[in-house]
Amino acid sequence: MKKNIVYIVLIAIIGIIVLIPGVRNFLKDQFFPIATIENAVTVGKDDYNIELKGINAPSTNLKNFRDKPVFLNFWGTWCPPCRKEWPSIQKLYDTRKDHVDFVLIAMKDEESAVRKFLQENNYTVPVYIAQSPISEKLLPKVFPTTFVLDKTGRILIKEDAYTDWNTEFVHQCIDNIVK
């Protein structure tokens, strides 16, 4: 008799999950969350206000990159994972610099060390050093941290670790945001 009650309760629970869309969708969102562009965090107008000293590019302000797709990377010469991902960033830059603005900000680094690193490796991706505070929304907690932003400032990709940036997925993402 107890087995029958257990089976009836299990069948009832499964029936509720399957037949009631609100319950099914709630459980699906809880156990299988999917990040959507509609839920993406947006970088606000004030978050873009960062004075940037150019190392191998003219000095500028990040706000000059608003309304454009941006590949924004925070890194340091002292950071092994940052150094490891540089070749893939350079390859991505070489093929996509006409479609996306690249802004790499060296953090906790001396300008001379950054210049030496770029020259020794023949890297041409635009590199800057922040000259004003960075908003909490963008300030990295770990290095490297990379954001891919669309024209409206939505964060479409955020990676807080070494990543191979010259992949089909990243190229498709860029193709989608430049349309």
**Assembly classification:** single chain
Helix count, per DSSP?
5
Radius of gyration equals: 22 Å
- The number of E-state strands comes to 7
pLDDT averaged over residues: 89
Helix percent band: 25-40%
Look up the CATH topology of the largest domain: Glutaredoxin
Strand content: 15-25%
Q: What is the topology, as strand order, of the major beta sheet?
A: 2-1-5-4-3-6-7
Tell me the CATH architecture of the largest domain.
3-Layer(aba) Sandwich
Contiguous runs where pLDDT drops below 50 for at least 5 residues: 34-39
Question: Topology as H/E string?
Answer: HHEEEHEHEEEH
Tally of distinct domains: 2
What's the level 1 CATH class of the largest domain?
Alpha Beta
Shape: elongated
What gap, in angstroms, lies between the N and C termini? 63 Å
Sheet with most strands: 7 strands, mixed
Assign the CATH superfamily of the largest domain. Answer: Glutaredoxin
Description:
By secondary structure, this protein is α/β, with parallel strands linked by helices. The longest helix is centred in the N-terminal third of the chain and has 18 residues, at 2-19. Mean pLDDT is 89; it is low at 34-39. A seven-stranded mixed sheet has the order 2-1-5-4-3-6-7, with helices on one face. A hairpin with a 5-residue loop joins strand 1 (51-54) and strand 2 (60-61). It has two domains: 1-36; 45-178, 3-Layer(aba) Sandwich (Glutaredoxin). It has helices spanning 2-19, 21-31, 80-96, 111-121, 168-177; strands at 51-54, 60-61, 70-75, 101-106, 127-130, 145-149, 155-159. The protein is built from five helices and seven strands. 25% of the residues are buried.
